[in-house]
Specification:
By secondary structure, the chain is of the alpha+beta class. The chain folds into 2 domains: 148 residues, YojJ-like (1 (3-Layer(aba) Sandwich), CATH 3.40.1700; 246 residues, DNA integrity scanning protein, DisA, N-terminal domain (YojJ-like (1, 3-Layer(aba) Sandwich), CATH 3.40.1700. The chain is built from 10 helices and 20 strands. The strands form 4 sheets. The chain has an 8-stranded mixed β-sheet with strand order 4-6-5-3-7-8-9-10, with helices on one face. α2 packs across α3, α6 crosses α7 and α7 packs antiparallel against α8.
Length: 407
């Protein structure tokens, strides 16, 4: 295999029948990532599906296409890899290599219902010579001749207050953001307030399970867009109502925080609640003529995909703010407070592991790390110009720490 050190990750997740297909797809992806189409680097996602016959969502090509670097060079330019993947299957008895069967919508993985079957393996060309392999919560990235493997979650996030805030927002009988209406014989029917309120314990449990994942998704989505802009930047997330004297110098501040990220997150969590409760067989309304539970679950899942796409647009807005010199500042409820903010230097002592890490980092890392050190429960996100991503966290009961994450 062209990238042998990925073998351990792959062996844990694929069947022996898939292995040759995956090995070939990796080699083709690495080669194709070095190609260009009209001066643009190729970016694409290959979804190696263990059981494509189970999926009804594959948009099949009239004839399967041979998986080669040249074919990817000609067709990948037409698709956004964040939203669409090429479904790759073994060639069959007469073939000489894997085939591209068609296309499939990339799932909103972090908030999708649990997989009932073995999840697909995704091979993605992210930049010239940079290829990732992901399956479930595991991901490995081949870059600069080495492989970095990591879970998709960011360690060290302390989200107790944020979880309770989201539970309160989603449990409100009449959401300020949008009334949740279900499809039925007479069009859309609002969920009765009494019915929604009666499910509060289950709603809280669903939101509690999902909060960590959606915070991971938001932070990583913002970081990914900063990386693709090929310019360094920084995000500082501060606890709500925390005094900030001595942290900042200058900046551009909103009169009221921009709440678009929070609106999107609450909408997504509300739709996930509808989906999960429906799957659990819970009644969501007393009105006659509602769709069947299976139809309601499918409707909520479709709406969830659309809401996730809107969240990605809001993450892009936040990432764009980091194009200006200085950091963008958010509160832990995801309200965007300002941008182009200069962080004051930290004059105190550093925890030993953090001090050692910062010895080989620049001023941006030191400024964000210093702000996080001074503010328990703060989160700092730094993207270097070369694409490295560092997250600084400060849990209330632990020393500040940092981790370099794989996107």
């Amino acid at each position: 295999m062209g990238i042998p050190s990925l073998r351990d990750l792959i062996d844990r997740h694929v069947t022996p029948e898939q292995l040759l297909c995956v090995e070939t797809a990796l080699e083709v992806a690495l080669l194709a990532s070095l190609h260009q189409n009209e001066g643009r680097n190729l970016r694409f996602a290959l979804v190696v599906e263990a059981q494509p016959q189970r999926s009804l969502d594959i948009q099949r090509f009239h004839r399967p296409i041979a998986l080669t670097a040249k074919q990817l060079q000609s067709i990948s330019i037409a698709f956004n890899p964040e939203r669409t993947g090429f479904v790759v299957v073994p060639a069959g008895a007469r073939g000489h290599g894997p085939l591209i069967l068609g296309t499939i919508a990339r799932p909103g993985a972090s908030l999708s219902p649990p997989q009932l079957h073995r999840p697909p393996l995704v091979i993605e060309a992210e930049a010239p010579g940079v290829v990732s392999v992901s399956i479930g919560e595991a991901k490995a990235v081949y870059r600069r001749g080495e492989v970095r493997e990591q879970s998709r979650t960011i360690p060290g996030l302390a989200l107790e207050a944020e979880t309770e805030l989201l539970i309160r927002e989603v449990c409100r009988p009449r959401l300020q953001l949008e009334r949740i209406c279900l499809p039925g014989d007479q069009g859309l029917t609002p969920i009765p307030s009494s019915s929604w309120a009666s499910q509060s314990k289950d709603i809280a449990a669903i939101v509690r399970r999902s909060t960590r994942r959606i915070y991971d998704r938001v932070l990583q989505s913002i970081a990914r867009r900063m990386v693709r802009a090929r310019r360094g930047g920084a995000i500082l997330v501060l606890p709500a109502e925390t005094p900030t004297e001595g942290l900042f110098a200058g900046g551009r501040w909103y009169a009221q925080p921009d709440r678009r990220l929070l609106r999107d997150v609450v909408r997504i969590l509300s739709l996930e609640v509808v989906h999960r409760l429906t799957v659990m067989g819970r009644s969501l309304g007393t009105e006659p003529g509602l769709s069947s539970p299976a139809e309601l679950a499918s409707w909520a899942n479709d709406r969830l995909r659309s809401a996730l796409a809107t969240l990605e647009e809001s993450c892009q807005f936040c990432a764009d703010l980091t194009e200006a010199d200085g950091a963008a500042v958010l509160r832990s409820d995801l309200g965007i407070e300002g941008f182009s903010v200069k962080l004051r230097s930290h004059e105190g002592n550093w925890p030993a592991p953090l001090a050692k890490f910062l010895e080989t980092r620049g001023n941006r890392h030191r400024a964000v790390a210093g702000a996080v050190v001074r503010q328990p429960a703060a989160i700092g996100l730094v993207v270097s110009q070369d694409g490295d991503v560092t997250v600084f966290t400060h849990s209330p009961h632990r020393d500040p720490c940092c981790v370099e994450i794989v996107l």
